[in-house]
């Protein structure tokens, strides 16, 4: 399977105001592409400084459409367009209890916290201790004190903060781990890249009383889920 090209590590040169211009341009481009329609998701993307969630040697590439390496064995910060790609079909909104599996940089959790607001809650689980520690520092520095970051196997969910209205799995799996369905509210949604015939299909699953509905969004390329329900 072909991966993503990684830009060469470079000492950071851009200023905060340059990044602010790039952030605005990126949001406008995502809107123009039709990937971004929710006002809350748009406001969140404008607010969170993505460059603050990226190792210094890749910071200048913060708003380019490439995933960038993070501390840890198999962690990347996803491309900028990934966040509306996940959060729009998930219907992430004000007041939701949100769980992320695969914290990575912590950027996705910070964006989600802006979307769900003070009446919602954000929990994010990361399996790699180095990556978890990197995210912890980023999230704290950016001031998201009530985002709960958990070190562990996200396939098992996080029962103490359940149930969740929305769950995003940011690593590819064969099936949605059953504990995550169990920790989802009725009518709640999970989004995940699901492996099928060697292809990853970004799929939204809605929990109903007696079944689950599925909707495939598009093909994607993410790192594999590890842990008990790993692919
Ligand atoms: N959402 C992240 C990108 C995540 S990349 C961001 O915004 O930056 C996928 C992450 O999932 C990696 O950090 C990887 O270590 C983590 N991961 C893989 N399997 C996992 C599991 N079972 N539980 C928790 N995290 C897992």
TL;DR of this structure?
It is built from six helices and nine strands; from the N terminus they run ααββαβαβαββαβββ. It is globular.
Description:
With 231 residues, this protein is of the alpha/beta class. Helices cover 27% and strands 24% of the residues. The chain has a 7-stranded mixed beta sheet. The relative contact order is 0.13. Bound molecules: S-adenosyl-L-homocysteine. S-adenosyl-L-homocysteine is lined by residues 72, 74-78, 101-102, 104-105, 107-108, 125-128, 131, 153-155, 170-171, 223, 225-227. S-adenosyl-L-homocysteine binds next to strand 2, helix 4 and strand 4.
Derived structural class: alpha/beta
Order of helices and strands: HHEEHEHEHEEHEEE
Task: Please tally the helical runs, counting DSSP H or I stretches of 4 or more residues.
Answer: 6
Question: Which radius of gyration do the C-alpha atoms yield?
Answer: 16 Å
Please list the strands of the largest sheet in the order they lie side by side.
5-4-3-6-7-8-9
Runs with pLDDT <50, length 5+? none
Estimate the strand proportion: 15-25%
- Biggest pleated-sheet summary: 7 strands, mixed
């Amino acid at each position: 399977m072909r991966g993503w090209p990684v830009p060469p590590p470079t000492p950071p040169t851009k200023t905060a105001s340059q990044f602010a211009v790039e952030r605005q341009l990126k949001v406008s481009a995502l809107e123009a592409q039709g990937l971004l329609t929710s006002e809350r998701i748009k406001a969140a993307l404008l607010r969170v400084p993505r460059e603050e969630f990226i190792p210094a040697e890749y910071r200048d590439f913060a708003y380019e459409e490439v995933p960038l390496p993070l501390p840890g064995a198999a962690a990347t910060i996803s491309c900028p367009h990934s966040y509306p790609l996940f959060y729009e079909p998930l219907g992430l909104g004000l007041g939701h209890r949100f769980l992320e599996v695969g914290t990575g940089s912590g950027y996705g959790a910070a964006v989600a916290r802006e979307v769900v607001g003070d009446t919602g809650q954000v929990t994010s689980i990361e399996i790699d201790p180095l990556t978890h520690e990197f995210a912890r520092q980023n999230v704290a520095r950016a001031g998201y004190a009530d985002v709960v970051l958990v070190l562990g196997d996200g396939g098992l969910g996080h029962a103490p903060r359940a149930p969740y209205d929305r769950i995003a799995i940011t690593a590819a799996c064969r099936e949605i781990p059953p504990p995550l369905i169990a920790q989802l509210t009725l009518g709640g949604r999970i989004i995940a890249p699901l492996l099928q015939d060697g292809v990853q299909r970004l799929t939204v699953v809605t929990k109903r009383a007696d079944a689950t509905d599925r909707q495939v969004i598009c093909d994607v390329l993410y790192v594999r889920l590890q842990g008990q329900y790993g692919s």
